[in-house]
Amino acid sequence: MGSKASEQRNRVATALERVRHQIGLVLGAAAGARQAAEAELAKLELEQHIVRVGMNHSTSEQYAEWSRHPAANEVFGLLGSVRGQFYAEWEAGPNALRELVANNAPGPASQQPGNWLGRVGTNPGITAPGLWRIGSATVPGQDVPRTFDVATPLLDESHLSIQSAPKTRATVDGIVQNLLMRILSTFEPGAVRVHLWDVGQLTAILPDLYPLSRTSALTLYDPGRLEDLLDELAGHIRRIHATGMQAGHTSLREIRQASGQRVEPFRVAVLYGNGETLEPERARELKRVATGALAAGICLILIDVPTMLSTSVESLSLHDDRHAVSSMTGPDLIVDLEPPMPSGQVIRAAGRIAEALIAKQGGPRAFADLLPTELGKESSARELRAPVGFFEGEAVEVVIGDASPHVLIGGPSGSGKTNFLYSLLGSFAARYSPDELALYLLDFKEGVSFAGLAPGRRDASWLPHAKLIGVNVNTDREFGLALLRYLADELRRRSAAAKLHEVTNLADLREQDPGGHWPRIVAVIDEFQYLFAGRDAVTSTATQLLEDIARRGRSQGIHLVLASQDVAGIEAFWGKPAVFEQCTLRIAMPKARRVLSETNNAAVSAPKWHAVINHDSGVAHGNQLAHVPDASSKDVFNKLQHRLWERYSESFKRPRLFDGAHSPVLEQFPAFTDLKPTDKPRALLGQSIDVDEAACGVDLPKAPGRNIAVLGAATAEALSIMDSAARSLARQHAEGAVEFVLSCPIEASIPAVLELAERLRADGHRAELVDDLPGRVIDIAENLSSLDRAQVLLLYGVDASIPALEAKAPGQLKSGLDQLRVLLKQGPAHGVHTIGWWRSIARLKDTLGFAGTDDIGTWAALDVQGNELSPFAAGQVVHWSPRPGRALFFDRTTHGAPEVIIPFQRPEGLLDG
């Protein structure tokens, strides 16, 4: 097949050259004959004059005498010979052209529009006509004038340059539109794509073709963004060249011939330059594109573009609105341009082609079309591979593996980024079982994009592949850091296993350790730039961890999917390109910028519900446009989730859900419900911001300094911490083994304290709300060595009690404050622990006096600035900006630095005061 097509192409080229040569010879011979005849006539006129003067006869006699002159017979004979030779040779030109066009411009390529306009083409696009009709030309004949079609080579054969004349824009549009309709009507839908650019018009570029704009067959470009079109064409050229080189071919035409398939569509790029001088860089890029375009199946039609191309280019220069000169016929032959096809017929024909293309693609594709017939049949040992959308009916896949280990997704708000993530996750989850794929999903923006993947009140199902789901974490950057630490720990664990088995990648590890559990891990972090929003330790540590995971994660099957509305403002990565260099898979939603390479702006013109998929680090030749079906609407993804849940829920645990917008409930928290009586009680203060659903607790052994301070004026959070600490301690003591002493001088908080006392009594413990705090403190301090049970002092608003504590009764040596200091220092060793709430750091310092801060071994700070906390954190600088619903926790016996915790939600019905 390839050799036959090549022979045919060579014959066309040879015939064209022969006809051009023949026309040139004939026109040259005619010009030479005319010049010779004119010279002979001038000579005869001179001789005639001599004869006339010498003989002095009448005119008729003179002419008769002259015609009998031997020279006259010679001239007449020469003229007859030239005329006969001219017409004999000229007859072959039109005949050859007619034969050439008939053989190489079949169907719509040359026939009158009435024979085909409105019909959908059937040529599959493996081969193309060699010529395309633009008009006709007429030459004189010996008997009658000779008319023949004028056609120009396009597509694989040649570019076309059109030079207009004044007031001929409508004529130029007619020429271009006629050619495009001939091409579009020749091939089956999808085999040709048209690109339109006009430096002078925002819209109305060949408007009759606009019905095609709802398909991939027609794309318009911004008049000020010629580079977008050139970049896209250059990308196609590089990609096709790379594909051809691998297969040993030098052009797309050879690839088609060898495979017998249309591996790529033909592309026709129409550029209206309006005679304006291109910028030097644009002109150079246009020349580079034109040089490699034909081999890549790309044909340029340039209208008034003042750039000389060093490649095969046919030219057409308009004389007026009906006539032109074509390089096909030579400079002395005028082409009668065919009239523009009727506008209404063109619009209807373009609409039929668009409808046929949509029907061929199966109509709008749905999320269900992405899913396999059987769930969980694929292996992730080598890679993860799944379709995320469709282009012209064909599935477009995303591949995550060693070659493309990490993903960068960008798209402004409303561009469909969340919908794309659902398509990606659903397509992967349907193909790989939870043993093959583990998902960690984190959404930093204020929303619940992934919340539906965890069990809820309305829907108890969850996505079995999900191990962690974090939503509404825009203010909890620490949770993102915790995820990175978890991934870094898992990376070290896998690296150690790989070293043990003497392998270097996940596939080999799974082969050598078939009994191990080594799924591929995909961590999706939406709006990941929030993780690096501050110039603090969180940003610094997160940057280091992310870079390490990005570099080494590929070999151990740990992959990052980083999504953002804009990656331009991430200062943490300025000068540190390691993460982005590892994100070789780039996905750009419509209007996204700086996600692909700096010069690749393909996403700017991408239509809604589409995405540009690029596995080559964003370089233009790797672009794949995909229509992404609706995956995020109500009940679309849920249907798949229910199928997966019903299949896997009994074998896999529900995912850990972290919702930054909701405080955890103590009664529902595993760390609380699992508490049992022990001789090593632990007070729970809040939830740790960590991958595991862990509580932040304080061990209260009989050791110095084991007291807890709650710092700040945030009443709700302070009451919550006091409540959860007391109730968790009560749960760990046998009935009657501990006594709770409560003091609350803050009237508004008394109802909450009374409610807590009732709960403690219900748990079998003595709980007393005292009015005389100084007296009770003095009593306990004086009897430390003889106490028969553990004591927990729950002191609310200690700063409000200081005046009463400072007062001394007549004859009293030590005040209640003095004895409180004794309890803080000596009480823990005797089983007396103080949990106090101070509303300011200054009041806590007043309470402690000159004893220093060692007696407060643990604290939870609320609305207190970090610089005030340094004395209570071993002198280190504390970075803390208070935020609602959060506390900063530090235990000098276990912490190197403070950590953020979330106070538990107090039971409904308690008053906050």
Structural overview:
The chain has 913 residues and is α/β, with parallel strands linked by helices. Strand 22 (682-688) and strand 23 form a beta hairpin. Helix 1 (2-55) runs antiparallel to helix 3 (70-104), helix 16 runs parallel beside helix 17 and helix 18 crosses helix 20. ATP binds at residues 411-418. One of its GO terms (biological process) is cell division.
Judged by helices, strands and strand pairing, the structural class is: alpha/beta
C-alpha Rg, in Å? 43 Å
Low confidence ranges: 49-60, 909-913
Distance between the termini: 88 Å
Overall morphology: elongated
Tell how many strands the DSSP assignment holds: 31
Q: Quaternary status of these chains?
A: single chain
The mean pLDDT is 84
* Portion of residues within helices: 25-40%
Please state roughly what percent of the residues sit in beta strands, choosing from under 5%, 5-15%, 15-25%, 25-35%, 35-45% or over 45%: 15-25%
Major sheet characteristics: 10 strands, mixed
Total DSSP helices: 21
Strand order of the largest sheet: 2-1-10-9-8-3-7-6-4-5
Organism: Amycolatopsis oliviviridis
InterPro entries: FtsK/SpoIIIE/SftA, FtsK_dom, P-loop_NTPase
Binding site for ATP: 411-418
Protein name: Cell division protein FtsK
